[in-house]
Amino acid sequence: PPSSYVKDEL
Amino acid sequence: MNLFRLLGDMTHLLSIVVLLLKIRTVKSCAGISLKTQELYVIVFLTRYLDLFTKYYSVYNTAMKLVFLGTSIGIVWYMRYHKVVKQTYSKDEDTFKHYFLILLSIILALLIHRAFDVIEVLWTFSLYLEAVAILPQLVLLQKSRNIDTLTGDYVFLLGAYRALYILNWVYRFLMENHKFRWIPWISGLVQTALYADFFYYYIKSWKNREKLKLPA
């Protein structure tokens, strides 16, 4: 999974 | 995107619609904390800096712009609209919100994943969002008369973060994601702050009584 996954959230 | 995440975003959006409905049609912001609303503007401005650096999806970009635009619009109405600003419960909106900003800055400088401007500001926005509801909750406690729209607004705002927790659990289990302590703990704290409010909101709804928080 992409390391920045949480940042695809709002 | 899973269902919890979508429901969370829609609940967040709906909370803003409810608040705008109160402001634009009832022409009132009584019982709404300007301090909380200003904190949300800061939260969105510092979190969505990645609008300029990273593209995720049309949905993501559109929602960010909506949250930025509406939060700034709401503060504008409460401060400058000639009818709405007169309904502002200024004397009861007394929480020292600068203290929350300072606390979040210090915490973000101490606890973050990487020390660069965007990452620290992003972390700051999570910490600040977690506590941004406090001036609003304090104002509600002082309000003798909480109207339905204000109660619904705060409830939807709390429900949004609770749904995000389910979304994180889902992503952790189903999408094999790693631990992400900073957003998870901030989100848990944020949701926990609503616990008391949820209790009285649901109680008043079940008994069909007017919402009232004990002082």
Automatic annotation (TrEMBL), chain B:
The chain crosses the membrane at residues 55-77, 98-115, 121-140, 152-170, 182-202. PROSITE patterns: ER_LUMEN_RECEPTOR_1, ER_LUMEN_RECEPTOR_2. GO terms for molecular function: ER retention sequence binding. GO terms for biological process: protein retention in ER lumen; protein transport; vesicle-mediated transport. Keywords: Endoplasmic reticulum, ER-Golgi transport, Membrane, Protein transport, Receptor, Transmembrane, Transmembrane helix, Transport. InterPro entries: ER_ret_rcpt. It comes from the Eukaryota. One of its GO terms (cellular component) is endoplasmic reticulum membrane. It is found in: Endoplasmic reticulum membrane. It holds the Pfam family ER_lumen_recept. It is a multi-pass membrane protein. Belongs to the ERD2 family. This is ER lumen protein-retaining receptor.
